[in-house]
Each structure stands twice: as C-alpha cells, then as structure tokens.
Amino acid sequence: MGSCVSKLSTVLIVHNDYESGTPSGENDAVAREVKLLAAEGIEVIVHCPSSDDLLTESLSDKARAAANAIWSRRSASKVAELISAHGCQVAVFHNVGPMLSAAAVRSAHSRVPIVLTLHNYRLSCLNGQHFRAGQDCRACEDGGVAWSGIRHGCYRGSRPQSAVFALHSVLVRRELSDADAVVAVSPAIRDAALAKGVDPSRCHYLPNSVPIDYASGRVADSERFALVMGRLDSAKGVLRLVEDWAEVDRGERLVVAGEGPDGDAIADFAERSPRIEFVGRVDHTVAVDLIRRSSLLIIPSLWAEGFPTVAVEAMACGRALLVSDRVAVARHLAAVGAATFTVPGELATTGHRLLREPGMLTNAGEASRREYQRTHSEEAFVARRIELYSALL
User: Fold this and answer.
1) Mind listing the pLDDT tens digit for each residue in 173-231?
2) What are the pLDDT digits (tens) for 365-390?
3) What is the Cα–Cα distance from 326 to 237, expressed in whole angstroms?
4) Helix, strand, coil proportions of the chain in percent (round to 5)?
5) Fold (CATH) for 212-376
6) Are the C-beta atoms of 106 and 78 separated by less than 8 Å?
7) Element housing 174 (H / E)
8) 10-209+377-391 matches 212-376 in fold
9) I need a labelling partner for 12 at 20 to 30 A (CA). Which of 83, 113, 196, 293 fits?
10) Do residues 257 and 287 make contact, with C-beta atoms less than 8 angstroms apart?
C-alpha cells in the first residue's frame, strides 16, 4: 500500500494468541494489523505468546501460569526489553490473558503511550459474551470481582480458573482507565468500555477488516443457498438454526461450515435432511469460495456478538446478511441496507423467504459491498489506526 504518511515508525503489537485448535477471528485480526502496518513501511515488533504453551504443562507449571495470569513479571520484563531494544513509539495491546497480565500493560505504559484493543466483553464478563445457560447474563457487568462468574465457572467451565481470571480482569480494568487510547471493534463494545468509565475522547470505534481477495462478482452470479459459518457452540445459535431449518424445509439449501461442541449434532441433522449440508471446518481458500458462491449469509448468534468477522467477509464479497436481533450490529447493518434482522426463532423462515427474492438479495448485497468499502476495507483499517497511533506521539 504505502499510502499513509505519518511520523509513526515503530510499533509494538502485543497479543496472547488463542489456542490454535480453535478458530479465532481475533488472532486473524491481529495478524492482519501487523501485515498492513508493515506494508505502510512501519517497523512492527510482535510479542504474541500462545496459549498452546499451556496445554502440556505439569501441575506445578499450571500453578505458576495462574500466578502469571494475575501479575507476570516475566511478561513485563519482555515488553520493556522490546521497547528499549527497538525504540518502539507506541505499544498496542490486544488479548492480554492468560499469559501477559496487567503487568505487561503497566510496564509498557511507563515507557510509551499504550493502546488497549477490545474485541469482546471479557473485562466485564469472564466468558466474554454476557451469555450463560442459554440466556443473556449481566450479573458481573457492574464491576468489581466477578463473583457470579466464579460461582458458575464461566471461564473455561472451571471455578479455580474463573477465580484467577476474575482477579486478572480487575487489574486489567485499572490499566484500561489509564490507557492513552482504547479501541473497540464494535459500537457495542465501545459502549461497554464507556460504561466502565473510559473517557469518551479516548475511546474509539475502529472496525476490523478482511483482505480484498474476498471481493466477488454480482449476487446474480451466486448459487441459491444460505451459508452459516463459524464456531459451533450454544452461544452461536447454529444448532438451533439447523433444527428450525429442517423443520421449516421449504426446499431451500443451508450450508454449515465450522467446528465446535455442537458439530456432531449438526452433522446428524445434515444426514437426515437433504436440504442441509455440513462441511465441517474449512481453510481460508474454501471459506472464501463458499461465501462467494452463497447468496445469503446467516448470523444466528444468541448473544450480543459485537461485529463478527464472517459478517465483514460477506460484506467484502457483496453478499446479503440475515442476522439475529441479538447481534449488536444487527440494526446498523439493516440501516445501511445490508441486512435483514429478526428474532432467532424466525431466522429459518425468513431465510427460506429471502432465498426466493433474488432482487432483494441483489440490493442488499450491493449495499453490503458499499458499506465494506466505506468502513471495513484494508485501506480504511490501516489509515485509521496509523492516524490514532500517530496522534499519541
């Protein structure tokens, strides 16, 4: 690209990578930021320890990891070393748990301006979703220690791990209030940060992007099927959609891609219903091909999901969206003409209807593509971040 002119020359990106066995839009977003900043001639120093390193540890190592999640002197020293060695001007943090902790944030902030990037509701909810037992849950939203989340084992289904992460979150929230800038990837996540007392002048909504190779032809060139893609768990609502789709069965196809706890149940439905196809987890190339071939992408989430990466991918391809009204950006996408939204129980019926209205799908797909170009293109993504980071110098 090389199109942005700024005084920014060196940035430190810090992120605790999620486990590689689980698809992570957040990992992808961080990797994309690194790539795009580097393409603008900025030196990007990366510190991204992976949670994979915790999977094979002994019991004593796990105890040490729990202590580090609360306050990691090693991470603090590593961040200080990188800033000093490379002359980093700004430190940008994404996920900081469980291997980094607030210690790394404070260490960086004593040396350079810091940016904290929020991809979910983790600082006000231990599972990051405000969703428990199939229902919206705001029990820990008021701040302090997340006692309800500890009692229910909301972090990884474990009370001990939830207790550790609750204290981790308290300490990170203190750094959040002092950060030079806070970036939220959706309006709803920004609202949650403001509710935590973050100064509005320092809290910025900067949406994620996806590569331009998602760009596709007209909706009229697509095949007539709906697509749902992502992690297959209860909060994502995919199993409920599949059940409803099979029951409605008005002859339209639904393709499901992804993996997760509900995968086996979805596969069983697909075997019994000729209108439902389950393809499992797919790589990037196949994912792009599926989105391009589809004529409607469905996001059936049952929780207040911020701005799903797959929605941006569909917008880049110029595909219409059908979104659960639980999704935080549902009304925004409908307002720009890119989506239809409805309650989760009506998604299957609405999906069958929309697939029989090609004119509506074409119009929504064109609006979807325009919104991608306006706010989610790689050019917009990197320009806004460079502008923000440069303003902190």
Assistant:
1) 989 889 999 999 988 899 988 988 899 999 999 998 887 655 554 544 568 899 999 99
2) 999 999 998 889 899 899 999 999 99
3) 10
4) 50, 15, 35
5) Rossmann fold (3.40.50)
6) no
7) helix 159-178
8) yes
9) 196
10) yes
